[in-house]
Design a protein that fits this description.
The complex is a heterodimer of chains A (248) and B (55). With 248 residues, chain A is α+β, with helices and mostly antiparallel strands. Chain A contains 4 helices and 8 strands, in the order ααββαββββββα. Chain A is elongated. The N and C termini of chain A lie far apart (73 Å). Chain B is mostly helical and 55 residues long. Chain B contains 2 helices and no strands. The chains are: A alpha+beta (248), B mainly alpha (55).
Chain lengths: 248, 55
């Protein structure tokens, strides 16, 4: 009789332990991953911007750095810097993304690759997609829930909302042209011309993908945008950023 | 299971409670740092990319 009791008791303890573990997992996934990722992504962005400023000789803390005068070839140099990131390793930061519609303080790093580990660290740049500002599709993926949830408010984007992508040399302002909900296998949304695979691009597109519905893998939420303007970084942040006070 | 653990722990009540607390914290930390990050990719609610999953 006491053997039965101890077996039943043991099973009960196991079940309670399993329940506690599931709750702990939820706490980790829904809360802790956000805490860690927000911190890490903030650090990445800061370090990246500081480094770019230093590279451009704009850093105020580095008076020893040779001051570069704005020159015509500055633009060409910026282009060169941009293509240098082509060789970025997975997880390497290659751009900084700002979406005024997500809030003035919404700033996220864009990292090379869309692997699980990369997407925990920021917005992921699809392998093979063009770089910001280039003709083709600058395709990125971001978490809508958990791991900092960079694209959490993605469904709120409406046509004409600005998406600003900052590279070592330039600010690129994209304007949202529309959104759609697709199946996870619909890779044509990130084709060089979105939804027209095989077609030769003549414009610079941006495509953002995230999960849909939230906390589900059933579909993907996709937002398309088109390049409106590219300005040199030393000319300062574009007006769309200044308007929300999120410049910097 | 937990009864056996309680009997194995030495010392007075306060000390045992303290050790239990430490053990629980260690277990939670191990879950947060190693177990959950390993398990998470196998769960279905973190997929955000479009991929070619053709057969």
């Amino acid at each position: 009789m006491s053997a039965v009791r101890s077996v039943v008791g043991g099973v009960g303890e196991l079940l309670v332990t399993a329940g506690v573990l599931v709750l702990l997992f939820l706490a980790w996934q829904l809360w802790w991953t956000d805490v860690v990722a927000d911190r890490a992504q903030g650090r990445t962005t800061e370090a990246l911007l500081e480094q770019w400023d230093a590279d451009a000789g704009l850093a105020t803390e580095a008076p020893d750095a040779p001051q570069q005068q704005p020159q015509p070839q500055q633009q060409a140099q910026a282009q060169q810097q941009d293509s240098a990131v082509l060789a970025a390793l997975p997880g390497e930061a290659l751009a900084v993304m700002r979406v005024p519609a997500f809030g003035a303080d919404w700033v996220r790093p864009v990292l090379a690759g869309t692997g699980t580990a990369v997407l925990r660290q920021g917005v992921g740049h699809y392998d093979g997609a063009v770089l910001p500002g280039e003709v083709g599709n600058f395709a990125v993926a971001g978490h809508r829930t958990t791991y900092g949830a960079p694209f959490n408010p993605i469904a709120d984007l409406v046509v004409d909302d600005a998406v600003v992508v900052e590279t070592p040399g330039e600010y690129h302002v994209y304007r949202v042209t529309g959104s759609e909900i697709v199946r996870p296998s619909d890779v044509e949304v990130i084709a060089p011309v979105p939804n027209r695979p095989g077609e030769e691009p003549t414009q610079a597109f941006l495509t953002m993908t995230s999960c849909h519905p939230m906390f589900s893998a059933r579909e993907r939420f996709v937002v398309h945008a088109l390049l409106e303007s590219s300005t040199p970084r030393e000319a300062g942040p574009p007006a769309v950023l200044a308007a929300v006070g999120g410049a910097g | 299971m937990y009864g056996a653990l309680w009997r194995v722990l030495p010392g007075p009540l306060v000390l045992r409670l303290l050790m239990l607390l430490l053990l629980a914290l260690a277990a939670v930390a191990a879950c947060f740092v190693w177990v959950f990050p390993t398990v998470a990719p196998y769960l279905p609610f973190n997929e955000i990319t479009v991929e070619d999953t053709a057969p």
